Amino acid sequence: MFSSLFSTAPPVDPTAPNFRSVSSNVPENEIFGELEPKDTEWACAGGFVAETQTFYITTEDGVNIMCQVIHSSVGIWYPTIQFTCKIANPAKGERIWKSINVTNFVTPPPGYDKRSSKADEYSILYKSNPDSEFPESYTIRANLGVDLQVSLELQRPASIPGWKVGKGPKGGYSYFGTDTNNAEGYVIHRFWPSLQASGHLIHNGKADPVKGVGMFVHAIQGMRPDLVASAWNFAFFQSDQLGGVSAIQMEFTTIDAYGKRGAGSGGVVVNVGSLVIGNKLATVTTETKWPGEEPTGSVISRALHLKPESDPDTSYGKPTEIVFEWKGPSIVAGAPGTVEGKVQTDLGTVSEPKGLIEKVDFLAEIPYVIKMAVNYVAGTKPYIYQWINPAKLSLTGPDTLSPGLSSGIEVEGYLYNEATFIS
Fold first, then answer.
1. Any bridge partners for residue 218, and if so which?
2. How far is CA 146 from CA 89, 104, 121, 153, 371, in A?
3. End-to-end CA distance of the chain, in Å?
4. Which residues form the Svf1-like C-terminal domain (predicted)?
5. CA-CA distance, 398 to 335, in Å (whole number)?
6. Which pLDDT score is estimated for 406?
7. pLDDT of the residue at 11
8. Is the pTM of the predicted complex or chain greater than 0.85?
9. Closest Cα partner for 260 from 268, 272, 252?
10. Residue 124 β-bridge partners
11. Are strands 185-203 and 64-74 parallel, antiparallel or unpaired?
């Protein structure tokens, strides 16, 4: 008994792997993990955890709408909950931006499960309608001030299930630290890759109808944001051609403290994505690129910045072009084969940008308590670039998925994408 008081944990090899990617130990034929009800429930965990529900919508005329709830915990302090809404109409050069701290947050609200939440300023309510054309939906109602109210219905088609990488309750997790059972931190992503959106926005007393296609992601960062990643990329492409096409991708690059050979071996790039073709979830992709190594698997899921140009506003190398690529096995019954997609978009120069919605000062937007707790190196300026542009997605795959697909088809649509630089 007394000796145990003075015992110490065995030393950890400083060159031991201290990061496990979501794609680790997941066979290529088991990448797709269909969502279970608990996967998108609010966790509201303690410690240093940032949890989000985010809905992205692209309307038929190219307007981008983003609605997000952020639940931020910092140690023993009471969590901060924000509702954020951004509406961008590139054709008119208009942008509406609202971010408010909400009061009396609760999950679950009476009569609903923990996939729903509400506060004095908003409600996001999950509904299940099994065996229907749209078996799941969310309804968003938000009063964000006298100048902006939101009313949206977001329905998931039965043919497009929600997904995570890997099956079971731990599907979707990447772990930081040498022990996954007692991890230093983690990142989780779970998606609805495509949904039908309808409703209206009221801005300055004028009601504008909303009709389009969207996506939903439930994400959790169980670690300080500056320790999770040095950079992020995100893409959401949608088109109504071929009966409905959607392509999404989420990528982060770890800081160098986490890698295959311990501290200093990081800069690990982790990417997850999916392709919807013909209103069916065609493939789910994931890829991990370890520093100094080339990926060896047959599945591709990656974002590439091309021709970066120094931006004096942010001090970062802003890409003037960006490429997103997908390649994975078909998961559609009766359509075996490989499905591939690629979109490349001109983002313009620093002085003449194309489709740039905004350069977001990350420190200005995160909750105050997190800003105070995150000890950024003096002089760093984390920024998020956001764009929406007309784009063309090149697709190939089995003809049983879509006629002529084996020869390659190019579909036209809109690409919303983000590039985040943290350090």
1. 53, 190
2. 21, 20, 12, 22, 28
3. 47
4. 223-423
5. 6
6. 98
7. 61
8. yes
9. 268
10. 117, 140
11. unpaired
Radius of gyration of the chain (CA): 21
Q: Vertex 81, ends 39 and 208: CA angle to 5°?
A: 90
Structure tokens at 136: 């799941």
pLDDT in tens, 304-347: 999 999 999 999 999 999 999 999 999 999 999 999 999 999 99
368: three-class secondary structure by DSSP: helix
Number of other CB atoms surrounding residue 51 within 10 Å: 21
Tokens in use for 276? 């919807």
Tokens 């039908």 sit on residue: 196
* Domain ranges within the chain, ordered by starting residue: 14-421
Domain 14-421 fold is: AttH-like fold (2.40.370)
Question: How far is the C-alpha of 143 from the C-alpha of 136, rounded, in Å?
Answer: 24
**Unique residue bearing structure tokens 């670039």:** 385
For the record, the structure tokens of 315 come out as 């001090």
Residue pointed to by tokens 């300080």: 224
Higher pLDDT, 208 or 77: 208
What is the rounded distance in angstroms from the CA atom of residue 404 to the CA atom of residue 365?
A: 46
Q: Are 72 and 60 in contact (CB under 8 A)?
A: no
Amino acid symbol at 67:
C
- Nearest-angstrom CA–CA distance, 254 and 267: 5
Q: CA torsion, points 349, 352, 356, 358, in degrees to nearest 10? A: 100
Supply 319's token pair: 């890409």
Phi, psi (deg, nearest 5) at residue 324: -120, 135
Token pair 């982060």: residue:
252
247 or 362: which leads in pLDDT = 247
Residue that is written with structure tokens 């630290």 in the block: 177
Least Cα distance to 210 among 224, 229, 225, 197 occurs for: 197
